[in-house]
Amino acid sequence: MGHRAGPAGSGNRSVRSGSVDAVRLQPQLEQAELPQLVVAQPCELVRRAEQGTDVVVAEETTFLGGHAGEGVAQEVDTIATWITQLELVQGWVNAWVTSAQEDAPFSNIYTFSNGLDLTQEAATARGLGEAP
């Protein structure tokens, strides 16, 4: 396959090589500085209405710990439903699937492991030191 170019002077060029298309950036983007990566801090996004406008504010969340589990499910949708249901429990957040593997080819039976973070909302009064 040959070289294809856009209109003369457009700065947009794509090169076709086999089955892969390589797209060149516009000249002003080719040498742009990339933003510095930073480590995300635990927080929750909270939406507040202030004087007729919506403002999204990041509020810090304290994680007490986490929970890990495993199970067996029939079909991948069952795992997705499980993960969604975990986050309905007060104080259980950021549920994820660590791994999922089909037990046998075409069996639709999956062994999976998952985890989630626990916030202060998951703690009991006793756990918070508020009860004897």
N-C termini distance:
77 Å
The side-by-side strand order for the widest beta sheet comes to 1-2-3
> From the helix content, strand content and strand pairing, which structural class follows?
mainly beta
Mean pLDDT: 73
List segments where confidence is low: pLDDT < 50 over at least 5 consecutive residues: 1-19, 45-50
Q: Indicate the CATH class of the domain at 63-122.
A: Alpha Beta
Count of β-strands: 8
- What portion of residues belong to β-strands? over 45%
- Please tell me the CATH architecture of the domain at 63-122 by its name: 2-Layer Sandwich
Tell me the major beta sheet.
3 strands, antiparallel
| CA-based shape | flat
Rg of Cα set: 24 Å
Order of helices and strands: EEEHEEEHEE
CATH topology of the domain at 63-122: Alpha-Beta Plaits
Counted by DSSP, the helix tally is: 2
Kindly state the percentage of residues in helix.
10-25%
Describe this structure in words.
The protein has 132 residues and is mainly β. The chain has a domain at 63-122: 2-Layer Sandwich (Alpha-Beta Plaits). 11% of the residues lie in helices and 47% in strands. It is built from two helices and eight strands. The protein has helices at residues 27-30, 76-86; strands at 3-5, 13-17, 20-23, 43-50, 53-60, 63-74, 92-102, 109-119. The strands form three sheets. The protein has a three-stranded antiparallel β-sheet with strand order 1-2-3, with no helix packed on it. Strands 6-8-7 form a three-stranded antiparallel β-sheet. The chain has a two-stranded antiparallel sheet with strand order 4-5. A hairpin with a 2-residue loop joins strand 2 and strand 3. The longest helix is centred in the middle third of the chain and has 11 residues, at 76-86. It starts with a strand and ends in a 13-residue tail after the last strand.
